[in-house]
Amino acid sequence: MAIRRILTIDNTADLAILKQVSKPVDTVDDSVRALMDDMLETMYDAPGIGLAAVQIGDLRRVVVMDLGDGPVPEGAEPAAEGEEPRIPNPRFFANPEVLWASDETFCYEEGCLSIPEYFDEVERPARVRVTYLDRAGARIEEEIEGLYAVCFQHELDHLNGVLFIDHLSRLRRDRAMSKVKKTMRLREDA
Q1: What pLDDT, on the 0 to 100 scale, is given for residue 79?
Q2: Half-sphere exposure (Cβ direction) of 188: Cα atoms closer than 13 Å
Q3: Rounded mean pLDDT for each run of 10 residues along the chain, 190 residues in total
Q4: Active-site residue numbers?
């Protein structure tokens, strides 16, 4: 496994890659699983909860995520009062698709590893029926909601060359670009 560089929108070459549509994988083989492993390690290192392959410059339709919503192991210490337990629950998706979306919507403040330190409200369908190939290559179909649905749709957008700021008004999108460029300049100067 290796930590890869995450492409960011402040870099013109990176942005050109991020705006491309990713290609389906033929099968989930060892090379796709190795990509998934690198992506997961990169996402954890960032840290984030989702990552599309295009964000590390690979134009295959592959996504990883971990919402920290895994089952609590038997005998585990309870979370501190007022804290939600964060139990690792890595998920792997190849060729993800939305088959159906609810008319009901859900607003969530989204962020993105390719748009560092910028967050904004995005409205998306509250529930979606999805299909994908899992890490073993099995076809999965399920209906999802909440943060899982938000993250799935956000990462699927990446595979279609769409960033979450593309869902915002032009003014808010321009503000995001300016803030990210400033953030990245400050990081370079540090």
Answers
A1: 67
A2: 8
A3: 94 96 98 98 96 98 93 71 80 98 97 95 98 98 97 98 96 90 82
A4: 155
Distance CA 156, CA 80 (A): 34
In b/e form, how buried is each residue of 15-48, taking b as 16+ CB within 10 angstroms?
Answer: eebbeeebeebeebeeebbebbbbbbbbbbeeeb
The torsion of the CA quartet 56, 158, 29, 13, rounded to 10 degrees, works out to -30
Question: What does the alpha-carbon distance between residue 39 and residue 145 come to, in Å, rounded to a whole number?
Answer: 24
Burial of 173 (0-12, 13-18, 19+ CB in 10 A): middle
Report whether 51 contacts 39 (CB < 8 A).
yes
CB-CB contact of 49 with 68 (8 Å): yes
Adjacent-strand bridge partners of 111: none
Task: Give the predicted TM-score (pTM) of the model.
Answer: 0.92
In the chain, what is the straight-line distance between the N-terminal and C-terminal CA atoms, in Å?
Answer: 28
DSSP state of 179: H
Note the pLDDT of residue 76: 67
What local confidence, expressed as pLDDT, does residue 138 receive? Answer: 98
